[in-house]
Amino acid sequence: MGEAIKKKLLAERKSLQNQLAVYKSEDPLLDPEQNISNTIDDVITVAEGHDRIVATRLELKQRLVEVNEALRKIEEGGYGVCEKCQGKINKERLEVLPTAKLCLGCETESN
Ligand SMILES: [Zn+2]
User: How many whole angstroms separate alpha carbon 88 and alpha carbon 71?
Assistant: First the structure.
């Protein structure tokens, strides 16, 4: 399977890792420099910010897992094979979505 896709995955992994690093440092609840405020409004804002950051970080981590899985398959074999029907995943599909685990037929079916 193409080097271009591997490059794309490696670039995405780097970008995800960078984003995760940023989110970690921007989490208001993890920021030791934050001013502790006693007003309810501030507490709510911080809590909401925290929830959103947690959700985003979870999503980034999930994508990172998928990218790593795809890279592992490129190295060990089995990349581009549909997990459901074991058929080959369309190359154009992989170029658009390098972490695709299902072929277009199975993906459409499961929706
Ligand atoms: Zn399939």
Answer: 17
